[in-house]
Structure formats: C-alpha cells, structure tokens
Specification:
Helix content is about 15%, strand content about 30%. By secondary structure, it is α+β, with helices and mostly antiparallel strands. The protein has a single domain, classed as Crystallins (Gamma-B Crystallin, domain 1), CATH 2.60.20. The longest helix has 19 residues. The two termini are about 15 Å apart.
Length: about 150
C-alpha cells in the first residue's frame, strides 16, 4: 500500500509539472481500444478521446456505456496484483479514462476465491496513464486491477 501511495504521489507531481508546462490533460489524450496482450495494433479512436470528460487527477473513471455515456463511477488505482470488483455480472462498464499516474488493467469478470479474496479473470486490457478508451474490445468490464 505504501508503494502505491508513493507511485501516486510521484505521478501527481509529474501531472502537475505537465499541466504547468501547458500539456493537455483529459480531452487531448490519445485513445486506444483496450486490447488483449496478443493484440498489438491500437485503434485510432480520436473522436472518443476528444469527448473524454474530465476525471479527477489520480483517479480512474468508468462509464456504463460506450463513449463516456451513462453512469460514471470513480475509483482509486488498484495496487499491482490486486483486484477490485466494480460491477455485478448483469452490468458492467464500457468506457474508461485513466487520470491516474499508473497503468491499470480492466477485466471482464471477477469472482471470490475460497479465502473470500476478489480475483479478476477473463479477457482483459491494460490502460496507460492519461488514456481514454471509448469502447472496450471485450464488451464490459467488471473488475479493476493493478498492473
């Protein structure tokens, strides 16, 4: 947990330096479809990035519909190796803006193991810091994990 806090603080410092230097944060990010590790060709979904709404710095924002529409929820980044259930089986999130300074991983499904620990499973994709994704290649995300 201390490592995650240090990473977030360092990232926030970088973000504040970028903002002070006139870098665009939010709507000016590059959009890329979330791909499985086997997929390597990014899409060029620039209109989705242009529509990406603001998300509090240091947070991960997800929306229930494509292109940042529908219900929005805001989460803190998750430590590497951890998994956070963000939706039930009958729901999920379809777009994301990662305003945190760390890479995150969105997962298609979650479950509780025998020790009552949340685990992520299924198709997944990595979202880099300051990346907006208007539509996931695997449908809806139900788990948020560290990378």
């Amino acid at each position: 947990m201390k490592r995650l806090v240090r990473m977030i603080r360092a990232g926030l410092l970088v973000l504040s330096l970028l903002a002070g230097a006139g870098a665009v944060i939010g709507g000016g990010t590059t959009a890329q479809a979330i791909a499985s590790p086997a997929d390597s060709a990014p899409s060029t979904d620039a209109p989705a990035a242009a529509r990406a709404p603001s998300c509090p710095i240091g947070r991960v924002c997800v929306w229930s519909a494509n292109d940042f529409q529908g219900t929005r929820r805001v989460f803190s980044p998750v430590a590497p190796g951890d998994c956070l259930k963000i939706a039930d089986r009958d729901s999920g999130f379809s777009s994301v803006f990662n305003a945190s300074p760390v890479f995150i991983r969105l997962w298609q499904a979650t479950y509780q193991d025998a020790d009552d620990v949340t685990r992520c499973e299924g198709r997944q994709g990595v979202v880099r810091p300051l990346q907006a994704v208007g539509q996931f290649s695997f449908g809806s995300a139900r788990g948020l994990g560290g990378y």
